[in-house]
Amino acid sequence: MKLSTPRWWYVRERDRSSMPLTRALLTPISWIWAVVTARRIARAAPCDPGAPVICVGNITMGGTGKTPVAREILARLRRSGVEAHGLSRGYGGRLAGPVRVDPAQHTAADVGDEPLMMAQDAPIWVARDRALGACAAVQAGAAAIVMDDGHQNPSLAKRLSLIVVDGETREGEWPFGDGAVFPAGPLREPLAAGLARADAVIVMLPEDMVAPDRELLALFGETPVLIARLKASAPPPPGPQVAFAGVGKPWKVERALKTAGCELADFVALPDHFAYDAATLARLAARAEDFGAGLVTTEKDWARLPPEWRARVTAWPVQAQFEDEAALDALLSRAMGQPL
Question: 0.85 cut: is pTM over it?
Answer without folding.
Answer: yes
